[in-house]
C-alpha cells in the first residue's frame, strides 16, 4: 500500500503512524516466541538477560539447561557419558520419556484422525450427501466445545466405557488407547477442514474420466484422487499431530503417570517450580513448529500448483 | 412435460427412467453416507456419549435416594407440605441405622449438604449414634439435634429422595429452595456462579475487542501488500498459531513477571521505580494479555481472507467523488469488511469463553474463568455441580456455534 500522490500532510502522518503501529503488533505477536530462544542458553538460573548475556560474554551462555533435560530423572546422571549413560537417558530421563509418549500418542492419534477424517471429507464433498450441514457441524464441534467439558466427559466415560451397553469392562483411564482416542477426536476437525478445502478445488471430471476408462473405484481413488488431494491430507495430518502434541487438559484428566507427555511435564514445571529447563524445551518446540509451518506452507503452494489454482 | 410422456421414457433395459434415476440417486446418497459413517460413529462414541453421560450427572444424583429408601417411601405416600410425623421420623431412624451398616451416611449427607450447607455432619453424626435410637423417634432425634425439626432440611430431603433433580442447576444459577417449596436467590455475598459467568463473558468480550483492534490494521496491511511480501509477513501471524500453547504461556510468564524482561526494561529506562515493578502476570491483566496473544491469529485469518477480496476501485471512486480518506474508510471500506469482523469476532469469543489452560496458569486469583470453576468442582468431587456448570457453559457455546454457522457457515472455517 503505497502513499497516493494526492495525500495531504495529515494523511502522510497517519500513513507512517499506521506502519509503526503494524510493526508494533507484529512484534507483540512474535517477540514472546523469539525471546525464549536466547534465554534458554542462560548460564544463570534466571528468566531475564544477565549483564554477561547483554555484553555477549561467552561465560553468560551455557547449555546447562539442555543438559538438564537429558539428566533429569536419570538413575546415575553423573556417570561417565558412555553407552550405558545414554541408555540410562533413553530409559529413565523424564523429558525423554515424555517425548517418547508424545510421539507415540501423536502418531497413533494422527493415523486414526487422518484415516477417518479423509474418508468422511470425501463423503461430505459429494453433492448427494444427506444431512450435510448438520453432520459437518457435529464433526467440527470438538474444536468448538470447551476442552474442560470434553475432558470431564471422557473422565467419567473412560472409568467404565461399557456402561452404555449396561455391562462392566476394563477402564480406559490411564491407558495409551484412551489418550489416543481422545486426541484423535480433537484432531478430527482439523483434518476435515483442510481436506474439505482441498476437495473444493478438486475437478470431479478427473475421477469420472478414470471410471469411464475402466478403473475400479479403488483404483480411481489411489491413482487419481489421492495424489491430487495428498497435500491437503498431509496438512490435515500435521494439524492433527500438532493438536495431540500440544494437548494437556485431556491428558491431565484421563492419563496416568505412564502416559506423561511433554505438555503435561511442562504444565508441572510451570505450576510448581518454573526452571529455565522449561525454556530449553520451549526452544526445541519452537524450532519444531517452525519446521512444521514451513512444511505446511510448501504443501499449500504445491497443492495450488498441481490443481491449477492461482494464489488468491 | 406431462406425467404420461415421462412414464414412457425408459432405460435401455426397459425400466422407467424416473425409477431408475431415483434408485441411482439413492445409491449415491448411501455411498456418500457410508464414507462418513465410520467417523460419525467414532465421534458419537468418543465425544457425544461421554458429554451426554456427564450432563446426565447434572440432573441425577442418587447419593441420598439410594441410602434412604424408607424415607423415600414416606415422602411418596405423603404429599408435599405434610409435616413430618412419628412415622416419618421412624423411617428416618431406620434409614440412619442402615446407613451406619452400609457406611453411606457421608454420601447421603453430602447430597443434602449441596442444598443446605453445613448438614453433612448432621447425617454422619446421627448415623454414628443410630443404634441407640429408641421410639418415639421424633423426640429421640430432636433431642439428638434440634436441626432435625428444620423444615428446610425436610424439603431438601424430599427433593433428594428422587435421584432426578434440578437442584444442581439451582445452585449453578445462585438460587436456593425455600421451606415452602419455592426458590429464591441466595444472599448477594454468596452469588458466585452467575457472577463468574458474567465475568467470563465480559472478559471474553474484552479480549475479542482487543483482538479486533490489533488484527484489523495488520490484516489490512497484509491484504494490500504484494502477494510475495504478504506471504512473508503472514509467517509472523502463523508461527504463533503453530507454536505450543504452553510455550507461549511460558514465554509470557518470562516476559511479564516481576523480575522479568519487560519490568527490567521499564526499570532500566526509568519508567517505573525498582519498588514499583508492575504486576502483569498471575492476575486478570495477565490472562487478558496472554489470551489476546493466543487468539489473535484466529481474528487475523478471517479478516485477511475477506479484505483480500475487497477491490480498491470502490475506495478510489469515493475519493475521486470528493470523499475524505476517513469518510472513504468509514462508508466504503469498513462495511465491506463486516463479514470478516463477524466471523473473526464470533470465533475468538467462542474460543475465549471456554478457555482453561491460560487462566489456570497465569490467572492467579482474579483471572479465573468458568472453566477453572468446573475444574475446581471436579477436583472436589462435586461432580453433579461441575456437570451443571458444564451444561450451562455448553449451552452458551452451542448457541454461539449455531449463530456462527448461520452467519458465517462452518465450511468457511480456514486454518492458514
Task: Supply the key terms.
heterodimer, A: 312 residues, mainly alpha, MetI-like fold, 2 domains, B: 416 residues, two-stranded antiparallel ribbon, 71% helix, 1% strand, flat
How many discrete structural domains of chain A? Answer: 2
Q: What is the radius of gyration of chain A computed over CA atoms, rounded to a whole number of angstroms?
A: 25 Å
- Kindly estimate the percentage of residues of chain A that lie in beta strands according to DSSP: under 5%
Task: Quickly give the CATH architecture of the largest domain in chain A.
Answer: Orthogonal Bundle
The CATH class of the largest domain in chain A turns out to be Mainly Alpha
CATH superfamily (homologous) name of the largest domain in chain B: MetI-like
> What is the overall pLDDT average of chain A?
88
Structure description:
The complex is a heterodimer of chains A (312) and B (416). The two termini of chain A are 17 Å apart. In chain A, helix 1 packs across helix 13 (277-306) and helix 5 (94-124) packs across helix 12 (262-271). Chain A is globular and about 70 Å long. Chain A has 13 helices and no strands. The model of chain A has no long low-confidence stretch (mean pLDDT 88). Chain A has 312 residues and is mostly helical. Chain A has 2 domains: 43-92, no CATH class; 97-306, MetI-like fold, CATH 1.10.3720.10. Chain B is mainly α. Chain B folds into 3 domains: 3-56, no CATH class; 63-190, no CATH class; 193-412, MetI-like fold (Orthogonal Bundle). Helices cover 71% and strands 1% of the residues of chain B. Chain B has 20 helices and 2 strands. Chain B has a two-stranded antiparallel ribbon with strand order 1-2.
Amino acid at each position: 500500500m503505497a502513499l497516493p500522490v494526492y495525500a495531504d500532510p495529515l494523511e502522510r502522518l497517519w500513513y507512517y503512524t499506521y506502519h509503526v503501529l503494524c510493526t508494533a503488533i507484529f512484534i507483540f505477536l512474535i517477540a514472546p516466541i523469539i525471546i525464549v530462544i536466547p534465554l534458554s542458553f542462560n548460564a544463570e538460573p534466571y528468566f531475564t538477560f544477565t549483564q554477561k548475556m547483554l555484553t555477549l560474554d561467552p561465560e553468560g551462555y551455557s547449555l546447562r539447561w539442555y543438559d538438564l533435560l537429558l539428566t533429569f530423572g536419570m538413575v546415575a546422571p553423573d556417570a561417565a557419558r558412555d553407552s550405558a549413560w545414554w541408555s540410562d537417558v533413553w530409559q529413565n530421563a523424564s523429558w525423554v520419556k515424555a517425548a517418547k509418549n508424545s510421539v507415540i500418542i501423536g502418531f497413533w492419534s494422527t493415523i486414526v484422525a487422518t484415516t477417518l477424517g479423509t474418508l468422511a471429507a470425501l463423503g461430505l464433498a459429494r453433492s448427494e450427501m444427506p444431512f450435510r450441514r448438520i453432520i459437518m457441524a457435529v464433526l467440527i464441534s470438538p474444536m468448538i466445545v470447551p476442552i474442560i467439558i470434553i475432558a470431564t466427559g471422557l473422565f467419567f466415560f473412560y472409568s467404565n466405557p461399557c456402561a452404555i451397553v449396561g455391562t462392566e469392562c476394563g477402564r480406559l483411564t490411564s491407558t495409551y488407547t484412551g489418550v489416543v482416542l481422545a486426541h484423535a477426536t480433537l484432531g478430527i476437525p482439523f483434518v476435515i477442514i483442510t481436506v474439505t478445502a482441498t476437495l473444493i478445488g478438486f475437478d470431479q471430471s478427473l475421477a469420472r474420466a478414470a471410471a469411464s476408462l475402466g478403473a475400479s473405484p479403488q483404483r480411481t481413488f489411489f491413482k487419481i484422487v489421492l495424489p491430487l488431494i495428498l497435500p491437503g491430507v498431509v496438512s490435515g495430518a500435521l494439524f492433527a499431530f500438532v493438536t495431540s502434541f500440544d494437548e494437556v487438559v485431556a491428558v491431565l484428566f484421563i492419563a496416568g503417570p505412564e502416559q506423561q507427555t511433554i505438555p503435561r511435564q511442562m504444565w508441572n514445571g510451570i505450576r510448581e517450580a518454573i526452571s529455565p529447563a522449561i525454556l530449553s524445551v520451549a526452544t526445541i518446540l519452537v524450532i519444531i513448529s517452525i519446521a512444521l509451518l514451513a512444511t505446511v506452507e510448501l504443501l499449500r503452494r504445491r497443492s495450488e500448483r498441481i490443481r491449477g489454482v492461482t494464489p488468491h | 412435460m406431462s406425467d404420461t410422456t415421462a412414464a414412457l421414457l425408459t432405460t435401455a433395459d426397459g425400466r422407467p427412467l424416473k425409477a431408475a434415476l431415483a434408485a441411482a440417486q439413492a445409491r449415491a446418497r448411501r455411498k456418500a453416507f457410508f464414507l462418513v459413517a465410520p467417523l460419525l460413529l467414532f465421534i458419537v462414541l468418543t465425544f457425544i456419549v461421554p458429554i451426554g453421560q456427564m450432563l446426565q450427572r447434572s440432573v441425577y444424583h442418587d447419593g441420598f435416594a439410594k441410602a434412604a429408601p424408607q424415607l423415600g417411601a414416606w415422602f411418596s405416600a405423603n404429599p408435599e407440605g405434610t409435616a413430618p410425623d412419628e412415622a416419618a421420623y421412624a423411617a428416618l431412624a431406620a434409614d440412619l441405622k442402615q446407613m451406619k451398616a452400609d457406611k453411606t451416611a457421608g454420601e447421603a449427607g453430602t447430597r443434602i449438604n449441596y442444598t443446605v450447607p453445613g448438614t453433612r455432619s448432621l447425617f454422619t453424626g446421627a448415623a454414628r449414634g443410630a443404634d441407640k435410637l429408641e421410639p418415639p423417634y421424633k423426640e429421640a432425634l430432636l433431642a439428638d439435634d434440634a436441626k432435625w425439626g428444620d423444615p428446610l432440611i425436610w424439603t431438601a430431603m424430599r427433593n433428594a429422595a428422587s435421584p432426578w433433580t434440578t437442584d444442581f442447576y439451582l445452585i449453578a444459577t445462585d438460587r436456593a429452595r425455600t421451606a415452602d417449596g419455592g426458590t429464591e436467590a441466595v444472599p448477594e455475598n454468596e452469588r458466585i456462579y452467575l457472577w463468574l459467568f458474567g465475568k467470563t463473558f465480559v472478559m471474553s468480550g474484552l479480549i475479542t475487542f482487543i483482538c479486533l483492534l490489533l488484527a484489523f490494521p495488520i490484516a489490512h496491511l497484509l491484504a494490500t501488500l504484494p502477494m510475495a511480501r504478504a506471504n512473508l509477513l503472514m509467517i509472523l501471524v502463523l508461527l504463533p498459531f503453530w507454536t505450543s500453547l504452553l510455550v507461549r504461556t511460558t514465554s509470557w510468564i518470562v516476559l511479564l513477571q516481576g523480575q522479568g524482561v519487560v519490568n527490567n526494561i521499564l526499570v532500566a529506562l526509568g519508567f517505573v521505580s525498582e519498588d514499583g515493578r508492575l504486576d502483569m502476570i498471575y492476575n486478570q491483566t495477565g490472562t487478558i494479555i496472554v489470551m489476546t496473544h493466543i487468539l489473535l491469529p484466529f481474528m487475523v485469518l478471517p479478516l485477511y481472507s475477506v479484505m483480500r477480496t475487497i477491490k480498491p476501485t470502490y475506495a478510489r471512486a469515493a475519493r475521486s467523488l470528493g470523499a475524505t480518506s476517513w469518510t472513504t474508510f468509514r462508508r466504503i471500506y469498513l462495511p465491506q469488511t463486516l463479514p470478516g469482523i463477524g466471523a473473526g469476532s464470533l470465533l475468538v469469543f467462542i474460543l475465549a469463553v471456554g478457555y482453561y489452560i491460560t487462566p489456570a496458569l497465569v490467572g492467579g486469583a482474579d483471572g479465573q474463568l468458568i472453566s477453572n470453576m468446573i475444574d475446581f468442582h471436579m477436583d472436589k468431587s462435586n461432580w453433579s455441580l461441575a456437570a451443571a456448570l458444564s451444561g450451562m457453559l455448553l449451552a452458551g457455546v452451542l448457541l454461539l456455534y449455531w449463530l456462527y454457522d448461520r452467519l458465517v457457515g462452518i465450511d468457511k472455517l480456514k486454518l492458514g
